[in-house]
Amino acid sequence: MELILKETISTLGQEGAIVNVKAGYGRNYLLPQGKAVLANVQNKSILDRSLATIKAKLEQERQQAEGLSKKLAGITITIVQLAGDDSRLFGSVTSTDIHQKLAEMGIAIDKKQIVLADPIKTLGEFTVKIKVGFQLTTDIIVKIVPSIEKA
Questions:
Q1: Among 59, 110, 115, 150, whose Cα sits 20 to 30 Å from the Cα of 42?
Q2: Residue 55 belongs to domain spanning
């Protein structure tokens, strides 16, 4: 099934791209959600007319993503957590905790942009990926240190 994307989807492509997807995915998800339209002659002509606007918008988004990437590059955040003698945390550090620390530093990102496969459950230093734009990520360092209080 050939579709024209109406918005950027990280697994398929950017807005305005013509993509081939399985019929079920297109018919049951992309079309009803308004994320794509059928790539017929009429819709392709509409796409051709609005291509300059779409390219300008994508370029602006790319520049914003690169700016955020430069702002985040090399940042180290420190999170204080209660921990046992074996360096295991009581609880865990999740993307929500990282999001809150970044917000305290004045960096506004969406929690969904933080790529954390599993919650952090031990003390130490970890590299965490942040999605800043379409196929553009940057790394930050997250240090987990024990709190002074004993549990």
A1: 59
A2: 2-63
